[in-house]
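Researcher: Sequence of Phosphoribosyl-ATP pyrophosphatase follows. Predict its structure.
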Amino acid sequence: MSGSNDIGDVLRRLETTIASRKGASADSSYTASLLAGGAQKCAKKFGEEAVEAALAAVSGDKSHLTAEAADVLYHLIVMLAQQDVSLNDVADALAAREGRSGHDEKASRKT
Ligand SMILES: N=c1c2ncn([C@@H]3O[C@H](COP(=O)(O)OP(=O)(O)OP(=O)(O)O)[C@@H](O)[C@H]3O)c2ncn1[C@@H]1O[C@H](COP(=O)(O)O)[C@@H](O)[C@H]1O
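Model: Prediction complete. Tokens:
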């Protein structure tokens, strides 16, 4: 571990590490092995981890859910990196939604 546990700092460090694995040897780096598999491999692993997190949530085991959520975030950032989408891009999308209820957004799509 190097640096703070602040969620923003951790995610930014992880994104930097993941980006550094582009073009690295798949034998030495798990991230590189995912990236080498392209969009399908990255999306498949992300989907699997998301389902595992959902099952952990239903089980009520908080420490299991926490571990699975970490897997989800790691695999999400790998999938985004493979598509050249940054966490800043995602932050911009979330910030643009701030203050608008999901109910209101959904209703606006029906009109
Ligand atoms: N945060 C993670 C991280 N979280 C989960 N994982 C890996 O994600 C995989 C989860 O997949 P599974 O549970 O399905 O395990 P598996 O069956 O072995 O996986 P598959 O063979 O099916 O792909 C495991 O191999 C975990 O080790 C991670 N691998 C790497 N990181 C970070 O990425 C950095 C770079 O890692 P490398 O690219 O391997 O150098 C590391 O220092 C970490 O900070």
